[in-house]
Every structure is written in C-alpha cells, then in structure tokens.
Design goal:
The complex is a heterodimer of chains A (590) and B (178). Chain A has 590 residues and is of the alpha/beta class. Chain A contains 25 helices and 20 strands. Chain B folds into 2 domains: 13-96, Alpha-Beta Plaits, CATH 3.30.70.260; 101-177, ACT-like. Chain A, domain 2 (Alpha-Beta Plaits), CATH 3.30.70.1150. The chains are: A alpha/beta (590), B alpha+beta (178).
Chain lengths: 590, 178
C-alpha cells in the first residue's frame, strides 16, 4: 500500500537538494544512478549539466563553489564513475572547497560480490573526503544528505561523498526536511564559537610593540566569506601593516593596493618573501604554512612572533610552531580585533612603520617581476599583463590549469575581490581549469570567465569544451602555448642539467581547428603584433573561445625559491646561478 | 623558533619518540576503525597496539585505545587529526592527564616436557599471580593481566626456562583517566 507521505530514495534526494537550495548539479549518468536521473527528468528546479567525463563534473563543482561561495554538487555512477572523481575530491580536500558528491552503488544485496561496475567507493574515497557515507537504509537518507551539506560547508570546508545503492534509490520512506534535523555538534567541527579575547588583546599589544609586522593571508580568509575580506581591508588600512597572500589568498585583499606585497612563496614576490624572512611579527590569517610558501623550514621567518588564526586545529603547529593561535572563524576574529582597536581608542596610525616600509620599498626596487618584451615573440608574462589590462574593467573570473602559466597568472593578473581566482593549489591538478571555468560560468552566467591554460594541462580535460558548447557557456580558454610542460622543463633546466626528458609536447593539435570541430571559436596570436587584437576578439565573442597564444618556448618563471632553499635565497632571473649544495638537496624534493 | 625541517636532519627521530596511549571516543558506525587506521598509515604514524569495543550501547559509542610512538609534537598532531574525523567525539593522550590507569590482558599457552620445567613455570605463575585457565599433562594456559610492562616481565622470566614452547595473545593496553 502506497503511503502518500512516502517517497522513493531518488525523490528524497531531489527534495533534499531543493531544501538545500541547490539549483545546479554536474553529472554523468550510468546504471547505478538511473532512478535518480529519472527523478531529475521530471522536475524543473534543478539544472543538470552533462559533463563529458566525471573528472569534469568534480572540477566544475569546485569552480562553481569557489566562484559562488555555495556548495558545489555532482552526481556520478558507481565503479568508474566514482573512481574518475577521486582526483577532484582530493583536490577539493587539499584546497578546502565545499562539494557534495552523490554516487550510485550496486544494489545492497550485490555489494561485496564484485558485481558489474561495483567498487568499494567509501573505501577508495575515505582518505580523499572530509567525510563519506554509504546509505543502506532509505529512512536515513534525508538526514544523511543534510548532514553532508552541513559538514561540507562548516569549519574548514571540504568534499563529502554520499554513496547510494540502487535499491535504496527505489525504496520508500518519509522525507525529513532540513529544518527538522538537529545536527550533533561533535560531528560538525565548526570551530570555536567565541572569539578568544586574550588572543585579540595579545595581538593588538604585539602590533603596538612591533617594528616589522606583516600579514600573511591564505585561503581560509576566502572560505570565511566576503566579510572576512572587508574586515581585513579595514584592519590593514587602520594599521598600515604590509600584507602578503598565498596563492589562494589572492583577491582577499586588493592586489593593486599600496599595502599589498603580492603573493609569497616559491614563485612569490621578492619583497614579500624578504619581508616574511625579516619580520618581527607575523599575523597568519587562514594560511597553513605550506611547503610552497615556507621554503626551508629551519630558515623560515626566524625572528618573528607568530600569531595564527585558523579554524582547523590540525593546521596549528603542524609545520611551523606559532606563539599564539585561535581556532575561531576569521570574520569573527578580525571583526573583534577591529572593534577592540576602535573601542579602546588605540592609535596605531602614528606608528606608520617608516623604517620597515623604507626597507620594503628598497626591496621593491628590484622589480622582481620585470621582463623584457621584444619585437617579435610574445613573452608569456606580457600575454597575462595584456589580458589583465584588457579585462580589468570587466566582471571577470579567472581559472587556471597547473604549471608556469598558473604562476604567471598569479603574478601578473591582479585581483581586487575574493572568489574571482580559481586555481588548484594544494594538489596541483593539471586539467582543473577548463571544467572549473564551466562551473564558474554556470554560477555567474553574465560574467567573463577565462581559463588561463597551458597546452599540456588543457589536453587533460579537453573533452569539456563540448559541455561548454552544449550549455552555451561563453568561457575563454587562453592558452600560453610553449609546446612544453613548462614547469617540468624549467626544473629539468635548473636541477637536471637541461636534460628535457619527456617534457616536450609533440604532436599537438591545431587548437584553432580543434575549437571549430567542437563548434567553438578558435583564435590565434603568433607574434606580438597580433596579441591585443586576438585578446579583444576573444573577449568580444559571446561563445566558447580557444585562444592559442604562441609564447616564448624557453621562458622560465621567476622569482623562484628552489626547493630546499630559504626565502632570502631566491633566484631572481635566469642569470642567477644556484648554489650547488641546494641543488642536490632540492633534487630529492618536489 | 624551533621548527622541524621537512628536509633530512641528522637527528634520530626515534630518540625523542615516546610511547603514548591514546584514548578515543567515537560514534560506533561502519568505517570508523578504517578511518582511524587509514589516518595513521596515510600520515606515517605508528600503531603499536590497538583495541576497540563498544562501551556505551545506548549512545552508540565505542572506545578505541591506540598505543603509538612519536615525539610530543607528532602526538599533538595525531590528536588534532583524530579530532577532525567526523565520528570522533574526543581523543586524549592519557599521559597528559593528571591521573590515569592502564591495563592489559594476555593469554599464555605453555608446552613443557618435564617436571623441572613445570615447577619453574608454576613458580613464575605464582609470583605474577596468573590465573590458570586450563592445565593438561604437558600444557598449561594462564591468564595474566596488569600493565604491559608487567606482562613483558612475566614473558621475559618464562623465557629463562629452557626447552618450553610459548604461544600468546595480548589485548594491547587499555586505559582510563580519572
């Protein structure tokens, strides 16, 4: 007897997604998710984006989440459907991106029999998700989905996977709405609820005392929401303290502001790395002392008192020991710092840190991002600078692939707002950028979304051009084409005696013709005289465009802190010679 | 500023390693043990001993006890990583409590050939107050409990008797803070 208050598992899933205000889902159908696809067929609140390979779905969900601040959602089938998203889940875990992945599973009674398209999904994805579930009982489904969304977006965000056997998708139960679910606090890990007043007071005292303070801001500031960025700007303006950001922190503070030292780390600015090395007070706002940032740990900022704001307890004292820390949300903490300074009439403006800024301005004179653009061959740095000049006034989102082009994009494209810069930092996933652009364009249909790409990375998820064409997403793929895996080639040049083992990308397609064959548009710039027109043409076309920009094949990305070196030992150009001892140590590192 | 380098250093990490017993309260749900064991193997930590049982049926809680080796900094990181797992309520290093107690249980099967051996075995069993579980002509099974150290000593003493065969099982340490 059918009870009208009971729904199938597939319908419960759709109701829960609606309840969670999900309006876009990226997916690929298959045997074990057919009941869910049947439910999708009969509704109209949810827009399904059919990707061409599941890896595309997970990166698109990441791009969607990063550019919108909402949870990205994807739907894949059992077996290969889910193993194809393992890279993307790991990527989202490393970069703290909230996504929920729904996967189909073979029917319960076949689990463990090596059934067709069966795999141990929860086993495979356990280390690459924040949490995962296998739902064996349909009556637990609503609660599981709501908890999954809560976990994905709370505390330090991350990917959550829900594996649903096919029989559970058919089985019936009541639907429990989100508002009727009381979450168990220990499972949500939302960080401390109250601002640590002691931490705030200590920090303000240290700001007053310090001669050479610096803000070191990471992706946590982004994840705390746009208000964190506003509080940060307020605090920086109030204190006149220089600020450097990590790769993921770009955009949390306006890149063109006078207080910004730009990005730090392996390919960070000279002034940013030197300031980190010489500072006496470091205020870490949501960064995790990643090895790309710190360089050699025993020489990392040796003389500073370190404050660390991070919602993730395990980020505290993991790589670098800090003096003061708090596990509270960044927005709350920064807000409290600002109001503490205001309400106590603490006048920090008088300090001005004149000597410190003088020192920093001397470092700036090095012009570490300087390059020489010749008459003929396009320098990749110049291509990015031009792209920035010609798009800065537009409502733009930038995604990237991974490699030299990614670092040049981070160095030469300036971001003034958070959530505009979408890149794979922790995992360094080649093939990330184009599907991420699909996701970002879905979330921001009227904005200009550009994937700054290398030709090698682009080839890794090239199938998603078809997705962009099908959904009329006018994303732009801006390829800095040097026919090499440029970063691999650079390391081989610096550390392996210029033996370019397997880093030349032979037999490349004609990207212009390739675009046309997908029904997208292809444009090309072979030399400097064609660059501006090509960029302008790319921007003006309201369709997916592949721009094939032929750049200097041998250009390297500088500044660079070689692996095993410290911040003050950075290389400024290809004319700098590395010290051979570091070279040997660096070889064994990544 | 003391920071441990990610690069090779001459310090022997094990020299500073301490034995710690961690007590972890978790929701008793499928996959929880795999999550914890995976965390240890994935991040390169050691498990010397492991024990897990449901301790609260009403609230569906299990207590997992893990004996591990590591510097203090590593142990703090293990605890922070454990507490990030969704089903974990708490993870405690028993050594950090002002008062805690440990125990372990072991079953020891001993095969012997002659009376002399039997007498020596009986003697040690008596000293360590082991309980006889079963005794046959040439086989005896004892149950011994106490700290891991105590059981180690009992086994060391048994090993001084020549010609006997010992087979055993140990629960690994369990512990509780007061």
């Amino acid at each position: 007897m059918d009870n009208e208050n009971e729904f199938t598992g597939a319908d419960i899933l759709l109701k829960a997604l609606k309840d969670q205000e999900v309006d876009t889902i990226f997916g690929y159908p298959g045997g074990a998710v057919l009941p869910i696809y049947d439910a999708i067929f009969g509704q109209n609140f949810l827009k399904h984006v059919l990707v061409r390979q599941e890896a595309g779905a997970v990166h698109a969900a990441e791009g969607y989440a990063r550019s919108s601040g909402k949870v990205g959602v994807l739907l894949v089938t059992s077996g290969p459907g889910v193993t194809n998203v393992v890279t993307g889940l790991t990527d989202a875990l490393m970069d703290s991106i909230p996504i929920v992945c729904i996967s189909g599973q073979v029917p319960s009674h076949l689990i463990g029999t090596d059934a067709f398209q069966e795999c141990d999904t929860t086993g495979i994805t356990r280390p690459c998700t924040k949490h995962n579930y296998l739902v064996k009982d349909v009556s637990k489904l609503s609660e599981t989905i709501h908890e999954a969304f809560k976990i994905a977006s709370s505390g330090r965000p991350g990917p959550v996977l829900i594996d649903i056997p096919k029989d559970v998708q058919f089985a019936k139960s009541k639907y429990i709405p989100k508002k009727d679910i009381s979450f168990r606090e220990h499972r949500i890990k939302a960080g401390s609820k109250n601002v640590d007043k002691n931490f705030v007071q200590e920090l303000v005292n240290h700001i007053k005392k310090s001669e050479r303070p610096i803000f070191y801001v990471g992706g946590g500031c982004l994840n705390s929401g746009p208000k964190a960025s506003q509080e940060l700007i307020k605090l920086v303006n109030k204190t006149n303290i220089p600020i450097t950001t990590t790769l993921h922190g770009l955009g949390c503070f306006p890149g063109e502001d006078k207080s910004s030292l730009g990005m730090l780390g392996m390919h960070g600015n000279y002034e940013a790395n030197l300031a980190m090395n010489k500072c006496d007070l470091m205020i870490n706002v949501g960064a995790r002392f990643d090895d790309r940032v710190t360089g050699r740990l025993d020489a990392f900022s040796p003389d500073s008192v370190k404050f660390h704001i991070d919602i993730d307890q395990s980020s505290i004292n993991k790589n670098v020991k800090v003096n003061f820390h708090t596990n509270t949300d960044i927005t709350m903490t920064l807000k409290e710092i600002n109001s503490f300074i205001e309400s106590n009439n603490i006048e920090l403006e008088k300090k001005d840190y004149i000597n410190w800024w003088g020192q920093i301005n001397d470092w700036r004179k090095k012009e570490c991002l300087h390059y020489e653009q010749g008459e003929e061959i396009i320098k990749p740095q110049h291509a990015i600078s031009k792209l920035y000049d010609l798009t800065a006034q537009k409502d733009t989102f930038i995604t990237t692939e991974v490699g030299q082009h990614q670092m040049w994009a981070a160095q030469y494209y300036k971001f003034s707002k958070p959530n505009r810069w979408i890149t794979s930092g922790g995992l360094g996933t080649m093939g990330f950028g184009m599907p991420a652009a699909v996701g970002a364009q879905m979330a921001n249909p009227n904005s200009l979304v550009i994937d700054i790409a290398g030709e090698a990375s682009f080839l890794m998820n090239i199938q998603e051009i078809a997705t962009a064409v099908q959904y009329k997403l006018p994303i732009k793929i801006f390829i800095l084409n040097n026919e090499y895996m440029g970063m691999v080639r650079q390391w081989q040049e610096l550390l392996h005696g210029s033996r370019y083992s397997e880093s030349y990308v032979d037999a490349l397609p004609d990207f212009k013709k390739l675009a046309e064959s997908f029904n997208a548009v292809g444009v090309r710039a072979k030399n400097i005289s064609e660059l501006d027109d090509t960029i302008n043409e790319m921007i003006s076309i309201n369709r997916p465009v592949i721009a094939d920009i032929w750049v200097d094949k041998k250009e390297n990305c500088f500044p660079m802190i070689p692996s095993g070196a410290a911040h003050h030992e950075m290389l400024l150009s290809k004319y700098d010679k590395e010290n051979p001892e570091n070279q040997e140590k660096g070889k064994v590192l990544v | 500023m003391s920071s441990t380098s990610v690069y090779p250093t001459p310090i022997n990490a094990f020299k500073q390693s301490k034995r710690s017993v961690l007590s972890i309260i978790v929701d008793n749900e499928p996959g929880i043990l795999a999550r914890i064991v995976g965390l240890f193997s994935g991040r390169g930590y050691n498990i010397e001993a492991l024990n897990v049982t449901v301790v609260d049926i009403k609230n569906n809680l299990s207590r997992i006890t893990i004996e591990t080796l590591g510097e203090e900094k590593v142990i703090s990181q293990i605890i922070a990583q454990l507490e990030k797992l969704v089903p974990v309520h708490s993870a405690t290093n028993l050594a950090n409590l002002s008062e805690s107690y440990e125990a372990e249980i072991s079953l020891v099967k001993i095969e012997f050939d002659n009376n002399e051996q039997d007498q020596k075995i009986l003697n040690f069993a008596d000293i360590y107050r082991s309980r006889t579980v079963q005794k046959r002509q040439n086989i005896v099974v004892y149950e011994i409990s106490g700290t891991s150290e105590r059981i180690n000593k009992f086994l060391d003493d048994l090993n001084t008797i020549g010609g006997i065969k010992v087979e055993l099982v140990r629960s690994g340490p369990i512990g509780l803070g007061i």
